[in-house]
Amino acid sequence: MSMTVERVSLFSRGAGVTMHGLLSARVQCVRSPWWGLPKVAGATPNANRVVRVHNADRLVHGLRLAAATPLPLLRQVADALVGEMCAGLEEEGGSDQLKMLPSYVENLPTGDEEGLFYAVDLGGTNFRVLRLHLGGKGQVLSQESKEIAIPRELMVGTGKDLFDFIANTLATFVDTEDILLDSKSNKHREAGFAFSFPVRQTSVKSGNVIQWTKGFKIDDAIGKDIVKQFQDAISRSGHDVEISALVNDTVGTLAGGRYNFQEETMIGCILGTGTNACYVERADAVKKWKEALPKSGEMVINLEWGNFRSPWLPRTFADDEVDKESVNPGDQWFEKMVSGMYLGEIVRHMLLRLAEEATLFGDTVPEKLREQQSLETKHVSKIHADISSELQTVATVLHEVLRIHDTTLEQRRIVHSLCDMVGQRGGRLAAAGLYGILKKIGRAGPNKNGFALSRQKKTTVVAMDGGLYEHHHPYRKYMEDALQELVGTNGPYEVFLRLQNDGSGIGAALLAASHSRHRQTE
């Protein structure tokens, strides 16, 4: 380990460290033996506690080295992502990581849309139904929504069972509609469907499921038209609701950003249970597109970036354990390192290792630490946000969630540092992903993609949605700071992350309006 310590200390002083040296140090830290840590036989309880904390600190230090995200490494991650993006645009299957799926959305919202529209947003362990009353001139006259948790058995069941559950929820929501909102007696309604799983679209209102992610595993729905499955379920509910737009949740978020923000919105990004991003690409850069190019000259591309993987991703043993226990081992590396479904499990595995190898919580390993999903990302978020001198929130979470009682400040400090480490890594890696997209479209650094630049600094907006980004404030701060570091202050563009609340749902309703069958025949 002497070379490892030397390399890292050199890096911390800003000396000439190569990326090869940093990666070597990180790999050595992962492989370093954690057994053989000192114990003191016959020592007093206080002395043993000191030794335990010391041993735990050593292990945490090794984890920090393995999970480090210095700026040079983030740039390497971004460049690797750009390489996969280009390969995925060149030909179908050109990248085995990024789907780079073209969107059939041709009419982004303009603000002129009018009427009553619905949306269903299936984005993770919860789904939302939403009603939007548009008054034209960019006005939203009213907005209502309801969020429902999806029972675990439906996430791994059949397509019919899942969509019957969602369709019946939508039907109940439609039944609450105030008739005063609309003068028409005709109860035909149109809805957008935000579906945040990989789909190969065949039109603006049809597409076949490629695979399930984020803990879903519904095998009988793969390869089938997801809109038809949902439309059939709506028909069984006895309601007249037509799905007029199928959109990925990121595309919905991008559409909402275009509707709400004056500045130019070029990227939509979700950071919630899972993660994904889409962006506006030059149509002629999509070499695999065989149909007529859109008149706008632009095309919205859905990356499906959760499956991105690279040797530059700073993985730890905990990431390997989480991957092994997931429903899709070997897939979705990036998602499993940055999204809300997995951060709690990563921290749990780290705490379990500290409990086993350093006896951090005493000679007996707390049983809850051996239980999968016992520590959720919402708990990690609470711990991470605790800035009190005694870390009392950390103590409460450990007591109530993991049944670890009477913790010392030193133990709580270590737990807090693990949550900070995992949150920092996740936020900074997400920023590296966005920076890669910005580089691809010429919005960061020299112009290499054909977008015209002027001497006047312009604004680029990334429309953000997802509970992790919205509620995990330290994660969000790490992400925003890292993106600013990567973009720098001397480029031609300023980049801002803007929260688009209910972005995917609102965007789906707006796209239902902009693609309304009735509007197109007027």
From TrEMBL:
Pathway: Carbohydrate metabolism; hexose metabolism; Carbohydrate degradation; glycolysis; D-glyceraldehyde 3-phosphate and glycerone phosphate from D-glucose: step 1/4. Keywords: ATP-binding, Glycolysis, Kinase, Nucleotide-binding, Transferase. It comes from the Eukaryota. Residues 72-259 form the Hexokinase N-terminal domain. Residues 266-513 form the Hexokinase C-terminal domain. Transmembrane segments: none annotated. GO terms for biological process: glucose 6-phosphate metabolic process; glucose metabolic process; glycolytic process; intracellular glucose homeostasis. One of its GO terms (molecular function) is ATP binding. It holds the Pfam family Hexokinase_1. Its EC number is 2.7.1.-. It is an enzyme of class 2 (transferase). It catalyses: a D-hexose + ATP = a D-hexose 6-phosphate + ADP + H(+); D-fructose + ATP = D-fructose 6-phosphate + ADP + H(+). GO terms for cellular component: cytosol; mitochondrion. Belongs to the hexokinase family. This is Phosphotransferase. The gene is LOC112278758.
